[in-house]
Design brief:
The structure is a homodimer.
Chain A lengths: L10 H10 L16 E3 L5 E11 L10 H18 L3 E12 L9 H17 L4 E9 L4 E11 L14 E5 L4 H10 L11 H12 L8 H7 L2 E5 L3 H12 L2 E5 L7 H9 L4 H6 L5 E6 L1 H14 L3 E8 L6 E3 L17
Parallel strand pairs in A: 3-4, 8-11
Antiparallel strand pairs in A: 2-5, 3-5, 6-9, 6-10, 7-9, 8-10
Helix pairs in contact in A: 2-3, 4-5, 6-10
Pathway (chains A, B): Cofactor biosynthesis; thiamine diphosphate biosynthesis; thiamine diphosphate from thiamine phosphate: step 1/1
Function (chains A, B): Catalyzes the ATP-dependent phosphorylation of thiamine-monophosphate (TMP) to form thiamine-pyrophosphate (TPP), the active form of vitamin B1.
EC number (chains A, B): 2.7.4.16
Amino acid sequence: MTATDDTAGSGEDRLIARHFAPLATHPGALGLADDVAVMTPPAGCDLVLETDAIVAGMHFFADDPPAGIARKALRINLSDLAAKGARPLGFLLTLALPRRAAEPPVDDAWLAAFAGALGEDAQAYGCPLYGGDTVASPGPVMISVTVIGAVPTGTLVRRGGARPGDRVVVTGTIGDAALGLVLRLERAAAGDFGLSEDERAHLLSRYREPRPRTALAEAVRLHATAAMDVSDGLAGDLAKLCRVSGVTARVDIARVPLSGAAHRLLDAAPEHLAAVLSGGDDYEILCTVPPDRLAPFLAAASAAGVAAAEIGEILAGQGAPALVGPDGHPVALDRASFSHF
Amino acid sequence: MTATDDTAGSGEDRLIARHFAPLATHPGALGLADDVAVMTPPAGCDLVLETDAIVAGMHFFADDPPAGIARKALRINLSDLAAKGARPLGFLLTLALPRRAAEPPVDDAWLAAFAGALGEDAQAYGCPLYGGDTVASPGPVMISVTVIGAVPTGTLVRRGGARPGDRVVVTGTIGDAALGLVLRLERAAAGDFGLSEDERAHLLSRYREPRPRTALAEAVRLHATAAMDVSDGLAGDLAKLCRVSGVTARVDIARVPLSGAAHRLLDAAPEHLAAVLSGGDDYEILCTVPPDRLAPFLAAASAAGVAAAEIGEILAGQGAPALVGPDGHPVALDRASFSHF
């Protein structure tokens, strides 16, 4: 991604100069006027690398507001860093834009809203744009973001460190995004499922715009034995964590933290409990914390203003974690995790 | 991009486990079994960051051999690192795959050939896979690669360092890839343009498979005042370098190094000279070298087995570089550079 201030440049050059060069406030981005970017790695740190992509028609709706699409593209990556205890250093962006007329049009106004929101998030999360590539495509809008983060050398929190006796902890509330998608797909209005306008807006916004738990990264790094973000559904992601750690787990469904809106929707339509437990896009932190670290972890979460709840325990053994209902019996889910394939 | 060895995983998990986990030989990739990768930055170095994407139907043909597509996706990024004097440390991959049946099918055989060639190149260029993301898309195959490289702190060769009197140097031969694309688009057979089968194959292979000049990265770093790779056409890329450096240049067209095949084709069809000078996809190094550094630069290139040729001189002033023909008059090009927009 390179920009020129010369209108004789290509369309790509002009697009970058107009919309993305203003985001390149970090000196390492070289003003997007060179072929590469340069980053001085912080001393005593490991780099933490992550790439996540989203595609119109798969991960968002083509007519979603471009500002929200930009936020989602960056924040799903920031969520991964936070869940691994890392702080962000910067990101690179690949943006594929429809070559032909699209509906809605991906025009100057769309790009201005997209880049504006991306710049605001880059500033808010301390994760500056370093560079990228803009390509025309015969296909839909696609955004791939690579974030680079840092942890003190040797302190990355892995998936595989969970041990029997560790407590299973999640941040925030679970299932809001999956229920937001239900509302979106069913074109549910306020009043449907007994939801107020605010509750409906809450669920939809949780689907559209993840809130990475960056403020909790240090607490994860200091206290968790294993961690990941919940992006493909709580049940499936916990199963993955357990598999890599060589353990299993028991989760009390009644302790899984739900928003008021999710409670209201489930009261009206309890069949959506499966979406809550196995739907995607939560972007909360799922981690395992030894019993003697639980109090300091929860205190750190509270100090950071992020809710955190103990929902179960790691157990010796193999196999999918048991999700135990209020009656003491495990609940079976048709699928534990979301997959686009 | 995470892999599991469990067939109960999602389709994406299985795809990654089968095709990409075998490439994750570097310990920092964590076997593609975690959410992120970890890289220990080399001491005393700046990181050099670059992202380049290619899309079927735009940057390659959907029915190109998958091994060649993989090589192109990685090598265009390695070419950027080499041209900036950087050595590769590793890369991340975003792969968007058609959700529906495609022609040719993007099936297991396609993925095996793609991943196999990618793994060979990763090994050959010392640039291991650290991670990535695989997404389904309603659109065509798209591949975005982010490479991370390194230079000793403060030694990145920028675009903006060219000074009047510096010699303009290019590696290898120019125009082969653009002429290969001409052959591909015109479905030219051996014999057309008077080309032998070998000459035709040479031009086509130069279009399909860039050869990054990694062996010359150190010489660029030690001797060049400005450098970039020729990806959008020699004339346009030199114009960009001059603009950022605040200078102009004169290039003798007769000194621009051409392959035997390019000479033969131009003899038969001189109208394709414009494609040679302004076509894309050369992936050679374009750099400026002070007169007193030219001999050691050329000696280093020779020692590395890479051809390098002085083709002109940086001049004080502004404006597009003059491309001077054998008659001493500047040649005008309809467009100096290739753009997809």
